[in-house]
Amino acid sequence: MCHPSWGAARAAAQRLSDLARLRRVRDLIDREYAKPLDVEALARAADMPAGRLSRQFRLAYGRSPYAYLTARRVERAAALLRGGGFVAADVWRSVGCSSPDVFRARFTELVGMPPDAYRRLVREAAAGTPPPPAVRPARRPAVPIRNREASAAAPRLA
């Protein structure tokens, strides 16, 4: 017969084990963001089902593994553009994005301006010229909705 407190201790131990796995996944994303990673590959690395990994990662870090990977890639791309050694057209390859259009859309969504405008703004700031008045502050990124998650429109009655 088990003691009643053993169930709580076992649940706490499982939670700590899951947090350690999630930390390893986050570290893997931070190290290998430029490689083609997907949730299934991350789940295999964590020895968890993909759905559970996504749910637990979102609970622990506030965003999905894919959103974290995308933010890490955009963060690195912004650093490369600030460094000045890369042309904006070549940055998307170096951070592991699948296409320039996807990279541009995600960069604009997270930073608030396209990569070319960001690089131009950084150059002007380094030269001491004030930013142009047309530059808007970064807006809150839109949350993408997958088709199967979109709510069905209520039928309109005439």
TrEMBL record:
Keyword DNA-binding: yes
Region (Disordered): 125-158
Gene3D superfamilies named among the record's database cross-references: Homeodomain-like (1.10.10.60)
Domain HTH araC/xylS-type: 23-121
InterPro entries: AraC_XylS_family_regulators, Homeodomain-like_sf, HTH_AraC
Domain of life: Bacteria
Protein's recorded name: AraC family transcriptional regulator
Organism: Actinacidiphila polyblastidii
